[in-house]
Amino acid sequence: MFETPLRIIALAAFAGFALGAQAKDIAAGKAKAEAVCAACHGKDGVTTIDPSYPRLAGQHADYLLVALMEYKSGARKNAIMASQATGLSKADMENLAAYYASLKGPMSNKR
After folding, report:
1. Do residues 76 and 70 lie in contact, with contact meaning Cβ atoms separated by under 8 Å?
2. Residue 29's CB: how many other CB atoms inside 10 A?
3. What is the mean pLDDT of residues 26-35?
4. Stated pTM of the model
5. Taking Cα atoms as reference points, which of 39, 43, 45, 36 lies closest to residue 86?
6. Are the CB atoms for 100 and 64 separated by under 8 Å?
7. Cβ neighbour number for residue 111 with a 10 Å cutoff
8. What digits encode the pLDDT tens for the residues 32-85?
9. Nearest to 98 by CA among 52, 48, 62, 54
10. Which CATH number, 3.40.50.720, 3.30.70.2660, 1.10.760.10, 1.10.3900.10, labels domain 24-102?
């Protein structure tokens, strides 16, 4: 009696989970990074231009995604980053975050 409704609920839950768990495109993130981010953040996410520019290599993807979304919305203030983020789609931001998270970052205890 309850088997069919439970099966429907389980299938619906699984389908929703599968749709939300799509892999990010690291290659697309790399291409976008080379075109948009590398001038300031360095070729591989390790800037050598200005020590005040964040190193992105090895950073957590979720942190990078939130930062980019906040620059785009204006919640995070930085004129340069706001103008860069304006042209990024959500997929671009997700791909960039996945790309930089996939890189090995330099380890340093200095802040």
Report:
1. yes
2. 25
3. 98
4. 0.75
5. 36
6. yes
7. 3
8. 999 999 999 999 999 999 999 999 999 999 999 999 999 999 999 999 999 999
9. 62
10. 1.10.760.10
pLDDT score of 9: 59
Distance of CA 102 to the CA centre of its chain: 10
* 19 DSSP assignment: H
DSSP state of 49: S
Q: Where are the domains of the chain?
A: 24-102
3 state SS of 51: coil
User: What backbone torsions phi and psi does residue 24 show, to the nearest 5 degrees?
Assistant: -85, 155
